[in-house]
Specification:
By secondary structure, the protein is of the alpha+beta class. 42% of the residues lie in helices and 19% in strands. The chain has 3 domains: 83 residues; 55 residues, no CATH class; 47 residues, no CATH class. Bound molecules: zinc ion (ZN). The site of zinc ion (ZN) has 8 residues, from loops.
Length: 261
């Protein structure tokens, strides 16, 4: 018998999100789960789609209570908070990035514990200031971002103005958005391994997450390919074999023929 586990379960994290369809009623808590072990579900995601589409499809696996369109219209900061939670549940480990030192030519690798990045209270919009002028600025969603060709478009969509009106506001809008979305652009700082000079390296959480999951799918596809070629089983048959047994068959294939590069 499975004991009743207290909420949230260890395999689940709770994220504050706007109530679906009713953002004015304040946040509600939505559970997200790890997905790395569920390669069969990730397998069906079309990684050839635009990045934010891929992210929405992956988040839909992690948070089955929300439908695709709800996830796609969430603010970027909320989506990044979900990605971090899934990443940590899947044991994605610390953020890692490499920096090249211009002074001594040495390469250095830096790490950061992603759980240490504190998130500001979630808001729908902020006030931005330029000289004596103040304007309301909405925080962008993935949907909005897809309609934007450049940072002026993003500023125009956030301010609800024309491109011409938004142009002088681009910098202040970008600053305000970054302040409310610290997971959107993560910069690791550390001393150069060669000369000690302080260096910076960027870590893109979203791209790293998508890339990591994509590589898991590619590995599974390579395994299916090897087994299909050796045993002439169908894709469905191969995927229905428990992973531990699949690994043994793959070992046999390795013994019989050297792995191709
Ligand atoms: Zn150096």
């Amino acid at each position: 018998m499975t004991p009743t586990s207290p909420s949230p379960r260890k395999s689940e994290a709770l994220i504050d999100l706007p109530s679906p369809g009713r953002p004015d009623t304040g946040p509600c808590q939505v559970g997200v789960q790890g997905i790395a072990a569920n390669v069969r579900a990730i397998w069906n995601v079309d990684f050839g789609q635009p990045l934010e589409h891929v992210v929405t499809s992956l988040l839909a696996i992690a948070s089955p209570q929300l439908v695709w369109s709800e996830l796609h219209s969430l603010g970027l900061a909320d989506r990044h908070a979900m990605i971090r939670a899934v990443w940590l549940l899947d044991g994605g480990g610390p953020a890692r990035a490499e920096a090249h030192c211009e002074a001594c030519g040495e390469g250095s690798e830096f790490e950061m514990d992603l759980s240490m990045i504190e998130l500001p209270p979630r808001v729908e919009g902020v006030e931005v200031q330029l000289g004596a002028w103040t304007r309301n600025c909405r925080l962008p969603s993935a949907e909005m971002l897809e309609k934007a060709a450049d940072s002026t478009d993003v500023a125009a969509l956030c301010l609800g103005s024309s491109r011409e009106e938004a142009a002088p506001w681009v910098d202040v809008v970008e600053e305000a958005l970054a302040a409310h979305d610290p997971l959107g652009e993560i910069v690791l700082v550390g001393p150069c391994a060669g000369c000690g000079q302080m260096l910076q390296a960027e870590f893109d959480l979203k791209l790293s997450w998508v890339g990591w999951l994509r590589s898991r799918v590619r590995r599974l596809m390579a395994d299916v390919h090897t087994l299909a070629r050796n045993y002439h089983w169908s894709e469905d048959e191969i995927l229905s074999i428990p992973e531990s047994r699949r690994a043994v068959y793959l070992d046999f294939c390795d013994v019989e023929e050297p792995v191709e590069a």
